[in-house]
Amino acid sequence: MSLDPALQAISIPQDEEGPVFDEPWQAQAFAMTVKLNEAGQFSWSEWAEVFGAEIAAGTASGQGIGNAAYYLSWLSALEKIVAQKALLTPEQLSTRKAEWREASENTPHGHPIEIETSAK
Amino acid sequence: MASNHKHGDPLPETVLRVKSLESLLIEKGLVEAEALDALIDRYENKVGPKNGAKVVARAWVDAAYRERLLADASSAVAEFGFTGAQGEELIAVENTDKVHNVVVCTLCSCYPWPVLGLPPVWYKSAPYRARVVREPRKVLEEFGTQLPQSREVRVWDSTAETRYLVVPKRPVGTEGMDEEALAGLVNRDSMIGTREADSPAMVEGV
Question: Are residues B26 and B121 in the same domain?
Fold first, then answer.
């Protein structure tokens, strides 16, 4: 299977059943990376180099080695490699992030929306 | 409990970064949403709707647990060891003869992942997010769920801080079943509210 090299190259937090994610964003970052690799946007060794550098930097700065720290490094590496490969620019990312932030701040959220649904 | 609700809080920075990457890569056609979901489904097997099914089955057989679940779902599911890393509040909403609950995240795809795992594709899709608020009965019918017209439908909007778990109605004809067997009737969609729990005949027929 195409993912096997990925699983072997860098140990993804996992148990005997496979990778383990603490939070959905970790799984999403993981999945995007694997799919871009499968699509040939970068090789897994290129990824491992960028990711390994992030892990090393994180470790040097005293970041833990739990799932969260692991995937934070993963995410930073993904942002770097999509820029290196000119798939997305840092400007596109920061603009989009501001848009999402604004949407999340301005949407009145968490309120149950009660719908009148008596017989039509 | 309403005082705990936060409105319009920004999503966590990490989530914003991932959402930005994901939405741009999808728009550019570099990745496909369905393919990402399929991959996650394949590898995400630590957390899943079986967790929620255990919670619901316990609530069906144990009145005291049901009370705790409806009063403080975060603590009640933590009794099973199901906890969220972000500390968001979980609220359980119970289906009855009078009320049917259904959950959406109109903004994105907030979901009670400690009890249900990662959300299905349709939950994250724009049509579901938009339509279930406007025409919940029609959307439910598309899921094969026909409700009596007398039953009120309530739609709950999830957020990064507040997630909802629907406790479906216990199916008829299950009086003699134990907790484990009952959990087998609790399908994922019934805990989102788009379907009802399976009947014993449906499960045996598989």
Answer: no
Alpha-helical regions (H) of A61-89: 67-84
Q: Which of A3, A23, A26, A38 to mutate to test the interface with B (most CBs of B within 10 A)?
A: A23
pLDDT digit string (tens) for chain A, length 120 residues? 333 333 333 444 444 334 567 788 888 998 999 899 989 999 877 887 898 888 778 777 877 656 677 788 889 999 999 999 999 999 999 999 988 888 777 766 565 545 443 433
Q: List, by residue number, the catalytic residues of B.
A: 105, 108-110
Q: Do B24 and A93 touch (CB under 8 A)?
A: yes
- Residue B114: strand, helix, or coil: helix
Q: Computed from CA positions of residues B73, B74, B78, B82, in that sequence, does the dihedral angle turn out positive or negative?
A: positive
CA distance B97 to chain A (A): 14
Q: Are residues B80 and B95 in the same domain?
A: yes
Based on the domain organization, do B68 and B153 belong to the same domain? yes
Domain count, chain B: 2
Specify the 3-state DSSP secondary structure of B205: coil
Which residues on chain B are in Cβ contact (under 8 Å) with A93? 17, 20-21, 24
**Residues facing B167 on adjacent strands:** B94
pLDDT tens for each residue of A11-38: 444 443 345 677 888 889 989 998 999 8
Q: Do residues B52 and B128 share a domain?
A: yes
State the residue range of the domain holding B28.
10-43
Q: Where are chain A's structural domains?
A: 24-88
For residue A38, give the amino acid letter: E
